[in-house]
Amino acid sequence: MTYTLTHHARDAMDKRGIPEAWLRHTLVAPQWREPDARDPELEHRLAVIPEHDHRVLRVIVNTQVTPERVVTLYFDRKMRGRL
């Protein structure tokens, strides 16, 4: 899968210690997808990361551009244990 990262997304990965492999896994094989509540161009993709104590990684992607653009990503505390 081809994608780009915003500067914010790259900084978030670095600051939060999120390896690119976890990002790719969530983009390619999300366990849950949902549209963004405010921006119809954005989609949220979520996946459990077993290597990180089964926390849920949320990746927000602009699907209306080619290649898709990762806007931000973070571990969603509210989703832990819900997927």
Give a verbal description of the structure:
The protein is an alpha+beta fold. The chain has one domain: YaeB-like fold (2-Layer Sandwich), CATH 3.30.2310. Helices cover 23% and strands 37% of the residues. It is built from two helices and five strands; from the N terminus they run βααββββ. A five-stranded mixed sheet has the order 1-5-4-3-2. The chain is globular and about 35 Å long. The model has no long low-confidence stretch (mean pLDDT 96).
Ordered list of secondary-structure elements with their pairings:
Blueprint: E1 3-5, H1 7-16, H2 20-28, E2 32-35, E3 42-49, E4 55-62, E5 68-75
Parallel strand pairs: 1-5
Antiparallel strand pairs: 2-3, 3-4, 4-5
Name the helix and strand elements from N-terminus to C-terminus, one letter apiece: EHHEEEE
Whole-number radius of gyration?
12 Å
Approximately what portion of the residues adopt beta-strand conformation? 35-45%
Name of the CATH architecture = 2-Layer Sandwich
Total of DSSP H or I helical runs spanning 4+ residues: 2
The order of strands across the largest sheet is 1-5-4-3-2
Highest-level CATH class = Alpha Beta
Secondary-structure-based class equals: alpha+beta
Distance between the termini: 23 Å
Low-pLDDT windows of residues: none
- How many strands, which pairing sense, and closed or not: the largest β-sheet? 5 strands, mixed
According to CATH, what is the topology?
A: YaeB-like fold
Mean pLDDT across all residues, rounded? 96
Helical proportion, percent range:
10-25%
Count of structural domains: 1
Broad shape: globular
Query: How many DSSP-defined strands?
Result: 5
